Amino acid sequence: MKKYIAPSLLSADFANLQKDIEMVNNSDADWFHIDVMDGVFVPNISFGMPVIKAINKHAKKTMDVHLMIVDPDRYIKQFKEVGADILTVHYETCPHLHRTVQAIRAEGMKVGISLNPHTPVSVLEDILADIDLVLIMSVNPGFGGQSFIETTYKKVRQLDAMRKEFNPELIIEVDGGVTDQNIEKLGEAGANAFVAGSFVFNSENPSETIKKLKQLA
Ligand code: DX5
Ligand code: ZN
């Protein structure tokens, strides 16, 4: 199974984004992970459309956009326009999730659904065949640099079993507190996409760190 490393730009230098984007372009990373926060669904505000558009101008890899916003349906078209390739919404923000999934698909993007740490993977059983990716939050969404929640391994294993039954192509992505200490075990549990923010950008040599994560995954 192909493995993807997705550095989260939330931990990049916002005053010099282009430099960090070029670093990712020239590294072993596969995707740009882009965290959008609205200060309502999560207690933090990150950035919006103009910044994503600017990132897209320089990014040469897949734009993996993670929406931590209420009522994401209002903005699906706009996220496509600013360059999202994968659009992930939170299960907890979508009362009509099936409709939201269809709307993302209709815009020609890959579809992801994210689960908060307290949300069981079983809620996705009836929609798993219709999506490309599940993003399992291994911290409470809102901030970079938090510590990894250990129950994530069990959730990844359960989802891996569901994947075999309902959607063998499904990508299982883990987000939050991913480091060289847990990425291997996450891969063994069945994860095949890995977001890493602070561990990459706070390291002395981010490009080497990405390389190391890719080898371990
Ligand atoms: C948290 C975001 C993450 C964050 C991860 O709400 O979804 O993508 O950037 O940061 P680290 O890897 O530092 O936990
Ligand atoms: Zn994220």
Order of helices and strands: EHEHEHEHEEHEHEHH
CATH superfamily: Aldolase class I
Number of strands: 8
Distance separating the two termini: 11 Å
Low-pLDDT regions: none
Overall CATH architecture: Alpha-Beta Barrel
Widest sheet: strand order?
A: 1-8-7-6-5-4-3-2
Percentage of residues assigned to helices: 25-40%
CATH fold call = TIM Barrel
Separate helix tally: 8
Number of domains: 1
Q: Look at the structure and give the mean pLDDT.
A: 98
Describe the structure in your own words:
With 217 residues, the chain is of the alpha/beta class. It has one domain (4-216): Aldolase class I (TIM Barrel, Alpha-Beta Barrel). 33% of the residues lie in helices and 20% in strands. It has eight helices and eight strands. Strands 1-8-7-6-5-4-3-2 form an eight-stranded parallel sheet. The N and C termini lie close together (11 Å). The model has no long low-confidence stretch (mean pLDDT 98). D-xylitol-5-phosphate (DX5) is lined by residues 8, 10-11, 33, 35, 66, 139, 141-142, 144-146, 175-178, 195-199.
